[in-house]
Design brief:
It is a single chain. With 473 residues, the chain is of the alpha+beta class. It is built from 11 helices and 28 strands. It has helices spanning 38-46, 61-75, 92-106, 124-138, 186-195, 209-219, 221-232, 237-246, 252-257, 278-284, 343-352, and strands at 4-9, 55-59, 83-85, 111-116, 120-121, 143-148, 159-167, 174-181, 198-208, 263-268, 272-273, 293-295, 298-301, 307-309, 315-318, 323-327, 332-336, 363-366, 369-377, 380-387, 395-397, 401-409, 412-416, 419-423, 428-431, 437-440, 447-455, 464-467. The longest helix is centred in the N-terminal third of the chain and has 15 residues, at 61-75. It starts with a strand and ends in a 6-residue tail after the last strand.
Length: 473
Amino acid sequence: MNHVYAVIMAGGAGTRFWPLSREKMPKQLLRIFSDDTMIQETVKRILPLVARERIRIVATAELAEAIGLQLTEKFGGSWRDNFIAEPEAKNTAPALGLAAVHLALTDPESVMIVLAADHFIREEALFLRLLGTAVAAAGQGMLVTLGITPDRPETGYGYIRAGEPCMEAEAGGVRKVEAFVEKPDLATARDYLQSGRYLWNSGMFVWRTDAFLAELAVHQPSLYQGLEEIRNRNGDPQAAREVFRSIKGISVDHAVMEKTGRSAVIPAAIGWSDVGSWGAVADVAPGDSAGNVIAGNVLAIGSERSVIYGDKRVVAAIGLADTIVVDTPDALLVCGKDKVQDVKLAVDELKKRGAPEVVFPGTVRRPWGTYTVLEEGERFKVKKITVDPGARLSLQYHEHRSEHWTVVAGRARVTNGDGVFDLDEGEGTFIGVKAKHRLENKGTETLAVIEVQYGERLEEEDIVRLDDDYDRV
């Protein structure tokens, strides 16, 4: 297994999980089923099979920062070298092609286990055993996918029609893929379930890196040509940006798996879900005696078969049936279970309106701590900033706004212009436009500061960093 790498696709937006998920806080960064986030769960799940140094995470630079923070929080150390920067979202084939190029440069004998960052898997031991089987099949040149054994006539997934066995192995063995099938209607899904020949398409793959690149060369020559340009320039990020600007986005299923003669599938009854919507939570999370899945400060009276997610304030749900309720500090979702796929329509409409509620979560994690927007209006914004012990913000200034800081917990070390001084609880300071400043926590407890911003432009982009502990200058 020394040449086996886990490639985790972590660039998804997860819009169907709004309002808990946002553009800056997608589903893979959320805690949904446990105290760990979904990306933390994914990494923890694969670590018994693949060593940390052979895990690669494909994500944009912005998401990589947030993911790296979560992985450091869970597993310690820096994860910077584990990331492959996706220049822009062009679907899974270009992203996996880019990962393959990087692995080919690192280890020409590499085998890729391709995973999503936001899937739920109940039977983790069986999952790892099946991946071992898939690695063995990949060693024979096959492009292997895990096909989930269906337990209901599901219309939200694509299907794989499994053919004859092509390798003796555990758990039913490896079978040829006869066809990839698009999402069916309910009657067709029932026929698929009854036939026993169809599996859900999980989007998890295992293949030798060189075999995958060879198939791209045959079936997607223009994409392969661009990837070769990146490889010839030794994986240079600028080369990747240039190539990604010109290539077309396409899924790996359409690009390769539906066309190749080397595809194989392993049936996997592993308690899997892609958690594609709030309705899927009810399928995998334990419910109460009335079938409700409840999280947060919720009072449910006479409600059944509902998903009710609360935050700090009380959510009282009375007489609901088959309903989704998700309450966050700045947005509330209420919809029928049969309409969960339409949450994306609400997100699209909010985007047209320029609503910030689709972009930023109520509390944003940064390398040094967090900030929460408490109130905002014309020419002002109020935030609560927390700074972890021993951490500090960048030395910076703003072109368009001034700020006032008031310490509400802990002691702050403040740089304001040419002065450096400490502020205790109840003390504050005013920071003028273009004045260089920095907030630092020298103590052992979390520092909390209320920041009031004034000005014509209050966007996060109005930050000019002069010095930064996290290489963001």
